[in-house]
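Dear support,

I submitted the protein below through the web form. The confirmation email said the job was done, but the results page showed an empty box. After a refresh the structure appeared. I'm attaching both so you can tell me whether what I see now is the final result or a partial one.
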Amino acid sequence: MTAGTTQVGIVGAGPAGLTLARLLGARGIESVVLESRSRDHCEHRIRAGVLEQGAVDLLRAVGAGERLGREGIVHHGVSLQFAGGRHRIPLSELTGGAAITIYGQTEVVKDLIRLRVEAGDPLLFEAEDVALHDIEGDRPRITYRHDGRERELRCDIVAGCDGFHGVSRASIPAGVLRVSERDYPFGWLGILADVAPSSEELVYAHHERGFALLSLRSPTLSRLYVQVAHDEDIGEWPDERIWAELQTRLGLPGWTLAEGPILEKGVTGMRSFVAAPMQFGSLYLAGDAAHIVPPTGAKGLNLAIADVELLGEAVAAWYERGDRSGLDGYTEACLRRVWRAEHFSWWMTSMLHRLPGGDPFDVELQLAQLRYVVSSPAAATTLAENYVGIAGRRA
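What the results page shows now:
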């Protein structure tokens, strides 16, 4: 077995792991990033695309903002549509200038991988059979197979950034984690269409047939969603049916939803999930390894980046000053923001989706909430602060 050493072993080359590696490198801290998938897979899997102001600022600070600044699409508002009307929430006006930026997670990953490779720092794709050992102590080990050889990596800290189904959270002994979760009885059927967006900003629609979202990936690519059953068979949704449903749920008099070739489509279930504590011994979890949010609030990618911002600073404080307070308080600091985002995502989801059973009482409550949000500056500010991420940073 080939053995190696580093200061921080990072499991997972998604936004969390790669951003953490970049943060640590800027402070002179060595890391090795291990990823079970291929580089091609990491650079092409379609994920979220709404970046909070804080996430944009951090990516720029670590040198990953050049293409983001050139190709990212800044939005200063979003719209809520219900009862035949569309109402704009002026995010920037309500938050002192903060905004969101449309820039796909795939593009963030591409940028961070390129920077890592250009720097010549260790980034191993297709690392198989990754396993964590001795994480309860101060000298953990990571074993894996790469290029047909068994390898071992000794480190001071392990950062588990390998997602919900990764090995990191599963390596924590039984009985340590407390899990809070909720599964939703609906999902999103999402499409990527080769057509220019029909709105300059995102539109969240509440409709009697179910929720719909008009989003985008670029000036020429539209990303759209309709609420379906959580276990919906995508085979039952030919392109013509998808467009018909989108036209019905998003349609307004005098406004046209442009259609085009559908490049991708799929169904994603929805859940809320939080595992605590987010640390055990020398292992620290970040991103989807520790928490999942329904996509309605656009918080998953942003929470992952926020986690590693805290973790990176905590690791640096320990190495530079021997200060363990950030590491010891990592879970508490993260979970304040995580639960704020969980609540916001649940609130948006509950307000906008058609609930099972079609109870008229639930519908009227949703409409009352929506009318309040678009008519009250205080309520609109609550949505805006959470959406751009300010509320989470104050939590």
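Response: this is the final, complete result; the empty box was a page-load delay. The first helix runs from residue 15 to 26.
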